[in-house]
Every structure is written in C-alpha cells, then in structure tokens.
Predict the structure.
Amino acid sequence: MQIAFYIIAGIIVVSALATAWLGKLIHSALCLALTFAGVAAMYLLLGAEFIGFAQILVYVGAVAVLIVFAILLTRNDDAPPAGRAFHLSGLVGVTIAALVFICLMMAGLSSSLVRTGAAASAGAVPAMSVKGMGEQLMSTAIIPLEILGLLLTVAMIGAVIIAMAEKRGDS
C-alpha cells in the first residue's frame, strides 16, 4: 500500500511538472489530465471512493477533455512555437508557490487534528451517504448544476465558432 502511494505521488508530481514545462500546449493539457487521474487514484487509495470517482468524472472526464477540445479547436497552426527562456516571472511564481506551501504546512501542522492524531476529537461528524448527496444535488442545487452545464455548452460552441472563423479567414 505504501509503495502504491509513492508510485502515485511520483506520477502526480512528474505530470504536474510536465504540465508546467512542456513546450506544446496540447501536451501540457494531456499531462494535466494525467495529474487529475493521479489525484483520483490517490483518493481511491485512501478509501474515499466517492470523491475519487467524482474526480474522474468531473476533472478527467469533463474539465480536461474540455480543455483539450478547446485547444484543438482554437489552435493556430501558422504560429511558431514559443521558446522557453528564463524569465523573472517564473522565479516570482516559484517563490510565491513556496510561500503558500509553507503557510499551508504551518497551518496544517498546528491543527488540533494533527496534534491529537485523531479526527474523532473534532466532534461528531454528521453521516452523509452518497444517496443523500445525490438527493441534495438534485433537489436544492439543481439550478446551479443546470447553469453550469449551460455555461460549459456555450463555451464549447463559442470555441467552435472562433475556430471556424479563423479557418475561413474571417476575423
């Protein structure tokens, strides 16, 4: 089990770094999908099956595929590939990411859950089943869910229209 954790963690880290550093945008998007799948595998390994399968459905099955389709529909074949040069903004980004990571680690390590070593000390957690979550999603959150679906559909149609206009030479 521990070996599987390290293998999955390695896949997540390598694919996340590849997402940031690969030269072609489509390759970066595919590595992002692999990162999402690795996170889902980590959830499944830790016993959170619902969250793991939701990660696969939402991020790998919808978000990553939408990103790949948007890239393929709107890419410009005539543009030269952008070169990777060292920029100060990259150093600033890494510094900010390191500071956020340090702050999150300090907050997590100072948590009472970590100090006591048990989640039971935080109090009783209300039981929620997958059926209960589905009923909540389809009753109280149905309007935001439908609006989100409509927004994603409009975005895809917009990407197709932009791609078609560029192919014909219209702008």
